[in-house]
UniProtKB/TrEMBL annotation:
GO molecular function, one term: ATP binding
Keywords from the UniProt entry: ATP-binding, Nucleotide-binding
Residues in the signal sequence: none
Phylogenetic placement of the source organism: Eukaryota, Metazoa, Chordata, Craniata, Vertebrata
Top-level lineage group: Eukaryota
TM stretches of this protein: none
Acyltransferase in keyword set: no
SUPFAM superfamilies linked: P-loop containing nucleoside triphosphate hydrolases
Protein name per Swiss-Prot or TrEMBL: Phosphoseryl-tRNA kinase
PANTHER family the record matches: L-SERYL-TRNA(SEC) KINASE
Amino acid sequence: MHPSAILCLLSGLPAAGKSTLARCLVSALRSRSWPCFVISYDDIILEEAFPSVNDETGSPDEKSSWKLHRQKVLLCLERFLQILNNTPHALYSPIEDDVIWMRFICCLKHKDGQSLSASNNSEILPDSLCMQFLRAPLVVLDDNFYYPSMRYEVFQLARKYCLGFCHVHLDCPLELCLRRNRHRATPLPDDVIIAMSNRIEPPNPNKNSWEKNSLAVTTMDFIKDKDINTIMALFENAMNNPLLPHEDDAGQKEADRICCASSLVHQTDRALRHVVSQAMKTAKDNQASSRNLRSLAEQLHKLKESLLDDLRHGHLRGRGFNLRSMDEVVIEATELFERETMNIVSSD
């Protein structure tokens, strides 16, 4: 039994070639009479929702707005999948007049993939999508998806509706991405791309079994025919092996918990490294001796590892955080680390 749709993630740095690859895939899929929809996060998420520089230096309000917009895109995607699957209108009303939903629909209508008929920009008529596709339509999600947790949210959605799922990561050298970006009509600051390159995590099936249907494509110059053929085979595999529904068993819950904990520790570690770097810089600027600098570095390293170990065991200095968002935990852990770092610096 084939799924009602296949979700494919395109990940990689800005200017790595994701949108170019998406256009190539649409052309290749059309030649095979395979319907395709392309959803570009950049076309949907409002510009003001993005943090000013990156998610480590942006303010808590900026981070919250950015995360909220991403969650709305997921909600829109789920609504769209319900329409494709002829599922009851469970998600129709809550986002009926939402600007993100309107941008989502415009993105679907204006991309080079399968065209949609709609009464207006804010509403897809279910009848317009109740056609019998000869093959399960491809839904390509074009975004950076730099953390596994971002990709896992889409995987969970695919599993919920028993869809096909796959992931194509675009591997492009940082310097080439920076050069390409500078020639764009609205280039991103170099600092944004550099910061993202330091935290992006390519798919790792050995660590995350749910990423087994993934591949990496090198995009240093142009998209090669052999790459397109390899990706087509990936699509076929996703179509022939849809995800099974999530069973509410202890093993799966533990796998989900480990995935979330790993992402939480990773994000917190990067934030704490920034605090350590700033503390060491301040100490150097204050002309601390080499001996004191070594001592400070050792103390901060032990403090950081102690706090990260807390997170690995599901608490923060003895207090649990099961009902709080990941961003909130990262922010609190960072603030706690800053206070404890200040105590160490003050005592020296």
